[in-house]
Amino acid sequence: MEYSILSIEGKDTGKKVTLAEEIFGVVPNDHSIYLDVKQYLANQRQGTHKSKERNEVAGSTRKIKKQKGTGGARAGAITSPTIVGGGRIFGPRPRDYGFKLNKKVKQLARRSALAYKALDRNITVLEDFSFAAPKTKSYIKFLADLSLTNKKTLVVLLDETENVYLSSRNLPKTKVIAVADINTYDVLNAEELVISVSALSKIEEILN
Q1: Are 118 and 112 in contact (CB under 8 A)?
Q2: 113 and 56 in one domain?
Q3: Half-sphere exposure (Cβ direction) of 48: Cα atoms closer than 13 Å
Q4: Integer Cα distance of 12 and 9 in angstroms
Q5: pTM to 2 decimals?
Q6: pLDDT tens-place string over residues 5-47
Q7: 82 and 164, same structural domain?
Q8: What are the Cα distances from residue 18, in Å, to 5, 55, 116, 125, 188?
Q9: Within 10 Å of residue 7's Cβ, how many Cβ atoms?
Q10: Cα 127 vs. chain centroid, distance in angstroms?
Q11: In terms of domains, do 115 and 200 share one?
């Protein structure tokens, strides 16, 4: 699968690059994608939810009425979960939502996500670039030159170039990441994948 390498201005440089078939040409495995995305989203959860149970609610522990003879149910204390203002029964507690996923499954998921992008021809390969200073205006022009202004984009660079990242972070439909941070969720969540030449080489080295 051959792609033309574009300049930062969106012009064809005359150079071409061939995407590795063992990464971009695999048959996508949907279940591995599901597992990897599920793990990614689970890891984003803080897990700090907490509600007070009956032993944590402030209130008297005296018996509020006699055991028998009232015609109603027994009640031991005002902190009982059955009384308004009492503790919660089986409420949420702080927990870690993360789970283990085998390395080979994660690699297959990332190959599958990249293969989907290649199948849909939603990949743009750029020559390596950087910005002299962090300017949102420069990044907006960069997207306009590539005809990606209204598309959700993921820009993958070899290393996270600070000026490029700072120029993009105010914009809602774009994200800039380093190769080391590439993940299945971000790849599939973007409409267009923009990869620099050196980042592409590194991806093929990591996933091969």
Answers
A1: no
A2: no
A3: 2
A4: 9
A5: 0.83
A6: 998 888 888 888 899 899 999 999 999 999 999 999 999 999 9
A7: no
A8: 10, 65, 16, 10, 21
A9: 15
A10: 26
A11: yes
